[in-house]
Amino acid sequence: MVTIAFEDLTEGLVVPLGEVKIDREDMLEFARRFDPQAYHLDEEAGRRSVFGGLSASGWFTASLWMRAYVDHLIGDSTAQGSPGGRELSWLAPVFPGDVLRCEVTVVGARRSKSRPGLGIVELSGTANRGDECVLRFTFAGLFGCRE
Amino acid sequence: MVTIAFEDLTEGLVVPLGEVKIDREDMLEFARRFDPQAYHLDEEAGRRSVFGGLSASGWFTASLWMRAYVDHLIGDSTAQGSPGGRELSWLAPVFPGDVLRCEVTVVGARRSKSRPGLGIVELSGTANRGDECVLRFTFAGLFGCRE
User: Fold this and answer.
1) Which residues of B touch A88 (CB under 8 A)?
2) What is the interface pTM, i.e. ipTM, of the complex?
3) Which has the closest alpha carbon to B95: B57, B142, B67, B135?
4) Would the pLDDT of A108 be above 90?
5) Which residue from A34, A74, A136 is facing B63, i.e. has the nearest CB?
6) pLDDT tens-digit profile of B14-64?
7) Is residue A1 situated within a structural domain?
8) In-domain check, residue B68
9) Which domain holds residue B67?
10) Are the beta carbons of B91 and B106 closer than 8 angstroms?
11) Contact status of A39 with chain B (Cβ, < 8 Å)
């Protein structure tokens, strides 16, 4: 029996997803594999860039947020994937050693008309460094209904 | 001297970004690290899911698209990062062995008023399996101007 189903994800619900720390080596490894731009790989190029320092690929930050979302909410749920999002914002550069507090808020929820037993949940995920939001992802998640 | 600057990214330009093949082990490694949901990790769970088979994390597909975008367009450019996107769509599940043809289209371009020397380019990136679009990412990219 799963813990979280569509019925549990009601509008306004805010779920803390814990903290992630940006590990320098992890960040560089991701950049080498998926986003080898100079400012994500090289200190000096980072300093000269608009970011002002070696910074994380936005896809790394988003992927770390996803991990937090799986670990703290949907890992034990009726989640059936996502068709995507209508906002993915990288609001500020992320640096090695940063600690990001992750969270997700249920923005809305409705049952699918075309697929009985499934619900569509609109969610907004954020990662914050102190009071500053550095990542926001607003997306739809599909979840099986309990009943 | 860089190859690509703001001035080169004119509305309507379509740039092929090559093909990426979905490697099963790479796909699983990414899922274990960033998106450990059962249908991304386990054959049987994948078959039972709405995806009908072991499928890639959408973040893996997006990250592979990013790599193609760096390799074929912005690796040697005046790119200065991205504030994010207004659409990230996972339109169909992606499976091991799939070959995705990546592409990016310039949707619009304007000079920044607040930051002289920078231009804001609206781009739409896609990954296609045959005729089927499996990923679309519509986003803004900041680029330095040549002049």
Assistant:
1) 84-85, 88, 137, 139
2) 0.97
3) B57
4) yes
5) A34
6) 999 999 999 999 999 999 999 999 999 999 999 999 999 999 999 999 999
7) no
8) yes
9) 6-144
10) no
11) yes
Burial (CB < 10 A; 0-12, 13-18, 19+), residue A5, is: middle
Distance from CA of B49 to the nearest CA of A (A): 7
Secondary structure tally for chain B: helices H, strands E: 4, 5
pTM (2 decimals)? 0.97
**How many domains does chain A divide into?**
1
Q: Domain containing A116 — which CATH number?
A: 3.10.129.10
Q: Which residue of B has its CA nearest to A20?
A: B34
The B84-90 sheet, strands edge to edge: A14-21, A99-111, A118-129, A132-144, A84-90, B84-90, B132-144, B118-129, B99-111, B14-21
Report which DSSP code applies to A79. Answer: B
- A142 φ, ψ to 5°? -100, 135
Closest by CA to A41, choosing from A60, A51, A52, A54, is: A54
